[in-house]
Amino acid sequence: MSACSEAVSAGSPSSVAQATTQPAPSAGSPSSPAGRRTAAEITAACPLVETSEVDEAFSVSGATAEEAPSQKLANGGQAFVCSYTAGGEDAAALVASVYEGNEVTPNQMIKAVMDKKAGAERVSGIGEGAVYYADQDGTATFSAVKVVGGTPVMVAVSGPATADKDRVGVLVKHAVDKL
After folding, report:
1. Is 89 part of any domain?
2. Which residues does the annotated region (Disordered) include (predicted)?
3. How many CA atoms lie within 13 A of 25 on its CB side?
4. What angle do CA 67, 70, 73 make, to 5 degrees?
5. pLDDT tier for residue 3 given thresholds of 50, 70 and 90
6. What distance lies between CA 137 and its chain's CA centroid?
7. pLDDT band at 9 (very low <50, low <70, confident <90, very high)
8. Considering the entire predicted model, what is its pTM?
9. Is 132 part of any domain?
């Protein structure tokens, strides 16, 4: 996915794309051992977050989920996008970016987001690194990284900046825990 510089509606897939911008590869390897599944088993974003969890995190009712076609990343990996709507309006978007073939560490990934987004703050206790930021266009993004089977995977949830950051953080933690 490529980052967009124009304003997008909260929860649209392109608003999350900014959080999944690929940092430069490094000579190091991911910092954690292989998990119980492989990154190749990640084939969609929607199964990572239940619609009831979106309802709670974004204070909406009756959210529905729609998986978009996956997109190739510049490094050969894949980005999987799930858009959530409630009452005919965008509620949130979830992107799971699998950085296959990139030896970037979770810390480098989070640092790349922090360097790009003014006011971004590092968050502890979710995955192997997490960051939260709000954009001037009224959207906020909460991203976390987990190494799955030796491959870094970034999960990013985007929605209105008015959503409670802690509740969205719980949503991201649930998604990361399912990886």
Report:
1. yes
2. 1-41
3. 12
4. 145
5. very low
6. 18
7. very low
8. 0.79
9. yes
* 110 Cβ contact partners less than 8 Å away, ≥ 6 residues apart: 122, 129, 130, 131, 143, 145
**134 occurs within a structural domain:** yes
Which CATH number goes with the domain that contains 81?
A: 3.40.1000
Which residue range is the domain that position 63 belongs to?
13-178
Report the alpha-carbon distance of residue 161 to residue 164 in Å, rounded: 8
Cα–Cα separations (whole angstroms), residue 147 to 39, 94, 134: 8, 18, 25
CB 126 within 8 A of CB 177: no
Other CB atoms within 10 A of residue 69 CB: 6
In a domain, 32, yes or no: yes
Total of domains in the chain: 1
